[in-house]
Amino acid sequence: MQIVYTHLRHFLNRTFTLKSADIAPGEQLQRDLGLNEWEFMEVVAHLETLFGMTLPDEVLVPTLTVEHLCSLIAQYKPEGITPLPLMTRKVAA
Fold first, then answer.
1. Domains and CATH numbers, the chain
2. Whole-prediction pTM
3. What is the share, in percent, of the chain residues with pLDDT greater than 70?
């Protein structure tokens, strides 16, 4: 799950200029990090593409936290959490 968290933090930092230090596991993506509905879906789409999977719509609730999103990726990608080769990029932890 750490690899998902690292990629998520990097994406949020790069795309929405959020400070990595502010992206804690318990932060809600919309309420605490200030993402609107479209930005939230952009984050989900990025992770789904990066890890080659799809999350069911019913788990994508507005109160979703960083930690819960990372655990959902792990739950719905049981064969292993590895970014797709074409999408792999060195990401600072």
1. 2-87 (1.10.1200.10)
2. 0.83
3. 84
